[in-house]
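Q: Now give one record:
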Amino acid sequence: MAKKYTIGVDYGTESGRAVLVSLDDGREVADHVTPYRHGVIDQKLPESGVELGYEWALQHPQDYIEVLGNSIPEVLRGSKVDASDVIGIGIDFTACTMLPIDEQGDPLSNNLSIKDNPHSWVKLWKHHAAQDEATKLNEIAEQRGEDFLPRYGGKISSEWMIAKIWQILNEAPEIYDKTDQFVEATDWVISKLTNNLVRNSCTAGYKAIWHKRESYPSKEFFRSLDPRLENLADTKLRGDVVSLGTNAGGLTAEMAKLTGLIEGTAVAVGNVDAHAAVPAMGVAEPGKLVMAMGTSICHMLLGKEEKHVEGMCGVVEDGIIPGFYGYEAGQSAVGDIFAWYVDESVPNYVKKAADDEGVNVHQWLEEKAANFKPGETGLLALDWWNGNRSVLVDTDLSGLLLGMTLQTKPEEIYRALLESTAFGTRKIVDAFHENGVEVNELYACGGLPQKNKLLMQIYADVTNRVIKIADSKQTPALGAAMFGAVAAGEDNGGYSSILAATRKMARIKDEVIKPIPENVAIYEKLYQEYSKLHTYFGRGENDVMKRLRALRTASK
């Protein structure tokens, strides 16, 4: 009997990746990356050149289809696996990445009459221009005593669906009126693959205030935001919400031709990138925090009951693995902070030295930064270069670096930035733990754990917890492929549940990263100083960051 495979497609911020996975052991047979042709659109629209405001981040929906047409045929060609042996496909996506579509399911940005309006385009997860709407939503929900608010740590983020929809209604009511449905990009891509639009429980629960037992917030709540939103849930958010691993349908003839797969191949409903990584690392029980580490970090835990934790992105029944409550928190910039520093602030002599040694700048800085002991740089930073997702849930906050002198070196700043993100994760770990949601060990996946050993040792030392690393370099894609195997079903060579798939396909490395006691002691002192700054600038005692942002916006 021929070996069977599934394909996972991981849609990131800058590119999409297809991974062909063996169902026997989860090994990746082939992978291929397709960079988005239009990248992140944050300055002006393609073609028209319409300028965007501060905190905008858009994408082109056709880039997502190009990933399917480029990367899936390439993994088939590279592996020489017959398409008939691929029994399923799953995808994962950044979220909340959303778009308005018309009655035919086409993005409004494809409509020539309105494509020059930025609100017709895909709003990427890190589109933060809906902060005003998020702030008002939170104020009204708190005043009304809405039951849903504690499930999201007391605040709904500007990154999430409802705030983005409300921004469209406020700033471009004509786009709102022309929208048949607002959908997550992951659900839209699935609709293109299967000609069937369904909403998945992960994005609906975490990003759109949907609850398995209570559905969306009431009409009265939406009317309290804006009378025009009263029927939002029944109209522009309508549709079935189904559990992860559900078969959304078979691959259409058109998509079979585009991808090289067989028509009718099982397609799992959409998923979120970080959440798909949890089963791919073999995590199927409480107490194990999974960190999907890349441009940002998503932190995920499983639980047997629903508890409320400050600043969480949400606790959702069946949100990560059916049968569990899934907790999510996050940091809205991690790798992005390191990249910003290298791209915008590193002096030329560092770049030249890295070139001379045949390494990239990140590697050069990491090597030099590793020579310092904790506390030796005399620096401390707040990790808010892209706002704070958890636990403060405030995109108006900004970065801070403290302690520089005329003797400060680039590698010292680099280390301080690494440490700041570890302190941010410690805040999240503490919030979980202090509210009765145990965090006993950490699991890490994504590009950063594979590339930066110093960073992972710092995380172990700051959190005083053992860290286990994913064996797969494409962990979200592996998870998506696993859900594809569940969608295909046991009778077709797949699996009956994601837990069954986890037992066979999940992989972590044998080595673990253990905290170093002497480092733990020093980082505890630094963390206490970080916590004071975190409170001072993040909880209203000094709103200088917000005032500076307001002055910047007013001067444009």
In short: The chain has 19 helices and 21 strands.
